[in-house]
Amino acid sequence: MNAYLELQGIRKRFGHTTVLNNVNLQIHEGELVTLLGPSGCGKSTLLRCIAGLADLDGGQILLENKDIVNLPPRSREIGMVFQAYALFPNLTVSENIQYGMRMRGASKEARRKRSEELLALVDLEDKRDAYPQHLSGGQQQRVALARSLAVQPKVLLLDEPLSALDAKIRKNLRTEIREIQKQFNITTIFVTHDQEEALTLSDRVCLMNKGSIVQQGTPEELYTTPRTEFVARFMGSYNVLTRSEALRLFERLDSAAESFAIRPESLILVNKEAHNEAVHTGKRIMDGTIYMATVLGNIIRYAVDVAGVRLTIDTLNDGRTLLLGERSQVRLAIDESQLLHLEKEGA
Fold this sequence. Notes:
Helices cover 29% and strands 32% of the residues. By secondary structure, the protein is an alpha+beta fold. The strands form four sheets. A six-stranded mixed beta sheet has the order 6-7-8-3-9-10, with helices on both faces.
């Protein structure tokens, strides 16, 4: 399948600093792709380059096989929602939504009809005559999204649009964004530094570091099969082990890798009754000492010292699980098949 939006060899520098280093990416029509990474990795700069708000130092941006690099932002048919929603304070909600259509010469009736459709879509029909300063942060975000959709863009760019909101509102709005994206089948690029947000929203996640995409794939692929230590550390609470630490746990390794990773949920605390079953299924049984226990809602996270190696273990907080305290002696089952062999960075 041909790419709907394709980035070829995108390069960008600010002075002597390389911000984007030969970025290549193909995005299919209707796909929601998330650019994930730490602050300063280049993800927002890449979004601004696609929108035409930052000039390239090299490369092509193809939309439906047409190079749009030399087109001004208003001619690219790309909508963008910024971290700061940039609503016009002197315009009502309805007028903000209609603004882009008015700039493009749409008739008053066409603008009104489109605005009403979008107000219903984002559940703000009762706020049509309100001004931005009278809206909550979540409501302002919905207006900004509706304004971007009003001009029927070919691509929608979302630059950390939820970062200023509290956790509960963020969860609700990211669900709404995903539903709207699917309803419109609009090709979307979403920028965030939040792993949970990326994993729950995306068709595909591109993890960036130092101006490059270091790994991409479905959310499940990126979480379950990180290729390097950076990816493993960024994608959650992986236990990243040196070769020496891995040998203390497994005694022998069928790999020449220098670093390894194992997920915290792949390490299982076992009682006497579960011991024989764990042994029967081929898991390695080891003794350890808890030095920290943290309740994270439905998860209890233990930090455990095992053979001189400090490991993180996640267990389900289901109401039946006994919270073990510090210095508790425990026994855990380790499944060697869950140990991931990591590549060297840049390999």
